[in-house]
Amino acid sequence: IKVYVTDYEYATLEPEKRELDKIGAVMFPKQCKTEADVIRECKDANGLIDQYAPITRKVMEALPDLKVVGRYGVGVNTIDVDAATELGIQVLNVPDYCMDEVSNQAISLMLACHRKLNILNSQVHHHGWDYKIAKPIHRLQGQTLGLLGFGRIPKMVAQKAKAFGLNIIAYDPYVEPEVGLQYDVTILPLKDVLQKADIISVHVPLTKDTENLLNEQTLSWMKPEAIIINTSRGPLIDENALYHALKDKKIGYAGLDVTVQEPIQEDNPLLTLDNVMITPHVAWYSEEAELELKTKVAQGVADVLSG
Ligand code: NAD
To answer: Is 35 designated active site?
Structure first.
């Protein structure tokens, strides 16, 4: 049984090897960038484990023994899932390896934006010592957190945010209000959530329907001092509209772990604003989450290949 890792950015593939050894599969690590690389390097693959290499219809049609493609991470955007289904090839992702980490990143960004930590830290590094540059900050306790999406990660965010005395509301058209109530969260329409919340945290998946969910119009519904946090996917927010809303103080602050282009372009105007904090798509990461991700993707591929 042959499993090719099409590409990867990890220092070791030991966890993958451990899982594949259990079914007697041989693992071949590659660093493919293009369709042609995958077709050339992984010709006799029974399974693929993929990070960023494009697993298109053309690739899958060119690998006659392929039965399963596992993807490192939550999204399967590198894989043509429709073509895989037609060709009888299973596609696997790892949806639940980093809920603790992402919910903590969302909370960290919320608190850091609320307390304006980047501005204060930068001042001290430049030998300043004046609390007034952070004015105004209002007490967090009693403020309202609005969650966009109410899946696995925002449910954890809600549980953690309760400890800060936040009232929590959420928008998720596929979640019944009763499910919200189990978490002491009120499910409301999008416009209500954006109008009422002091902090918005974005957790919806990126689809054709959710791209630019936050745009010039929907951002204009938010409070002028509101904070917006995005740990989900960059294209959920129209970055140009976000830049103008932040620059013109139509909203207060943004904390982003994800951007439309990753890595962010050097000339992205968001980088000129001091009411923005950006981390490099790191919310998923801890040593434990990385190990779980690598183990689970290889386990999933091994399970399919061992029938
Ligand atoms: P999930 O699959 O558990 O939940 C998604 C929720 O979104 C569901 O409740 C669904 O009903 C809702 N939804 C779907 N379409 C919607 C719409 N149009 N409007 C509002 N809600 C909608 O997802 P999760 O585990 O909570 O993860 C959320 C997102 O976090 C993922 O989609 C992923 O993009 C992102 N993520 C980011 C990182 C990172 O490192 N930054 C890591 C893991 C996940």
So the answer is: no
